[in-house]
Amino acid sequence: MSAPIYDKVALIGLGLIAGSMAHAMRRGGLAGTISGFARSAETRGTAREIGLVDEVAETAAEAAEGADLVILAVPVGAMGAVAAEIAPVLKPGATVSDVGSVKQAVIAAVGPHIPDGVHFVPAHPLAGTEHSGPRAGFAELFDNRWTILVPEGADRAAAARLERFWTGLGANVEEMDAAHHDLVLAVTSHAPHLIAYTMVGVADDLSRVTDSEVIKFSAAGFRDFTRIAASDPTMWRDVFLTNKEATLEILGRFTEELFALQRAIRTGDGEQLFDYFTRTRAIRRGIIDAGQDTAAPDFGRSGRTGGQK
Amino acid sequence: MSAPIYDKVALIGLGLIAGSMAHAMRRGGLAGTISGFARSAETRGTAREIGLVDEVAETAAEAAEGADLVILAVPVGAMGAVAAEIAPVLKPGATVSDVGSVKQAVIAAVGPHIPDGVHFVPAHPLAGTEHSGPRAGFAELFDNRWTILVPEGADRAAAARLERFWTGLGANVEEMDAAHHDLVLAVTSHAPHLIAYTMVGVADDLSRVTDSEVIKFSAAGFRDFTRIAASDPTMWRDVFLTNKEATLEILGRFTEELFALQRAIRTGDGEQLFDYFTRTRAIRRGIIDAGQDTAAPDFGRSGRTGGQK
């Protein structure tokens, strides 16, 4: 094992992502010491109990003090306040990064608090499960997944070091600008999540079909939606509020296309439906070829998918 | 192993469902002989090559002749024509059933062709994968899944025998009337599939986000949609055209709710979003408790979900 990439890493927030980072840092020997902080006393207690990090601090500033890398792993809506709180103790030459699902809003909220001489390199690991909390993490979460770095003019050496760190956590790294990141994620993640939440809500509302029927017969396609829709509500509220524009744009296009397909159903235009459904198969093939999924068939018992940001 | 439930079973259509039935019948010793027919010569050739059934016939009537149970396993839109073709050779006392995802339309199309003295007991196994064709089947497909019987006044003894057959294939069986079946499936399967197809189509259309980006970053939620949207285009075209009313009703409600959530995003109503997302978590919990999925987290590599009718 080579030398740690950072002597001290501070995790602000101790949920699924930060917890998985702690496990993966230890696996890879990437950090000398890991400190951590969570706003909830219960989460801090659990983190101490399971030894999630080396030191659980009582404030974000205490955790961040002296750290060479500080990771903001709180909901996007809370990042600005956390950045303001830790700003005074940040070590010169340190790197501040985050794991937020939205980048333009994080940069706007966090950027102004970063002192001169501290590097801010936003990041977004595209990994997750529908579970949350300090016990949900595991070392393999980032393996062969993508982490998007959004350096936006940050110091190149600091960005390259953070890239080595993420590679050490198991991820593939790609750089992108913030606006493009937010659009790509609106398509691949944010809009699909809102749609899944909506469909699950509709099923729950429909009085002529009981909840128990919905649950019992969920394997018929609906189950995948419920898994996506089980993700952390606070995190997702913040995603939609902070990536408003791109999400609404994609949802607008989605609605337009859905209306076209609804009209095809209503008018009995089988050819349009068949052509549409044939086209979407090719995309699936591409995802399997890209190694982001397997072609193994599912028959509804493995339950190993979804809920990723 | 006990005696077969039917001496001769005929499978009209040799795709994923029929193929899985053949494997599961053999596993359970449920049939004396299995005959099969598929419209495509290529499919018949493959079925012979892999020994999918005991005898591959050259016409549907040849396969159905003398059978104690005939299963119509063709797209819903083709069921009426197949029923007309086999009607003259159906053995008195035989049972005709199907595996269509829609029940009212199948009853309307098939029912009139069924001769006196032959029992028609429609059925729908809620199982599938995104794969299709004669090589896609496997014996475990129906294990612990639900099969819905829609006897609608059929002979009770014939319905009870078909129920024993499906139980032998591994399924849990429940009876329902045709209209309710079509509504329940519109919620749990048909609307989710159309929504998934639509979202995948939108991603493919968006010129500012490349297909390769969509594919690369699909693990962020979108991947589940592509799996659902990779299912057989002919089958799904027919589902939407024949369960038009219920599907359009559910899609109408879905659009209504989606608009409400879009408005909440636009106006920044975080509370509404948070409450909505919290409610949908409970449904997920119910599905895990009902044994239709597991709580195991996924991190995007197992690929074992979806595409079920």
UniProtKB/TrEMBL annotation, chains A, B:
Molecular-function GO terms, alphabetical: NAD+ binding; prephenate dehydrogenase (NAD+) activity; prephenate dehydrogenase (NADP+) activity
Alphabetized InterPro entries for the sequence: 6-PGluconate_DH-like_C_sf, NAD(P)-bd_dom_sf, PDH_C, PDH_N, Preph/Arog_dehydrog, Prephen_DH
A Pfam family reported for this protein in Swiss-Prot or TrEMBL: PDH_C
Reactions catalysed, as given in the entry: prephenate + NAD(+) = 3-(4-hydroxyphenyl)pyruvate + CO2 + NADH
Protein's UniProt keywords contain Iron-sulfur: no
UniProt entry keywords in alphabetical sequence: Amino-acid biosynthesis, Aromatic amino acid biosynthesis, NAD, Oxidoreductase, Tyrosine biosynthesis
Enzyme Commission numbers on file: 1.3.1.12
Domain of life: Bacteria
GO terms under biological process: tyrosine biosynthetic process
Domain Prephenate/arogenate dehydrogenase: 7-295
Pathway connected to this protein: Amino-acid biosynthesis; L-tyrosine biosynthesis; (4-hydroxyphenyl)pyruvate from prephenate (NAD(+) route): step 1/1
PANTHER family: PREPHENATE DEHYDROGENASE, PREPHENATE DEHYDROGENASE [NADP(+)]
Similarity remark: Belongs to the prephenate/arogenate dehydrogenase family.
Protein name: prephenate dehydrogenase
Organism: Pseudoroseicyclus tamaricis
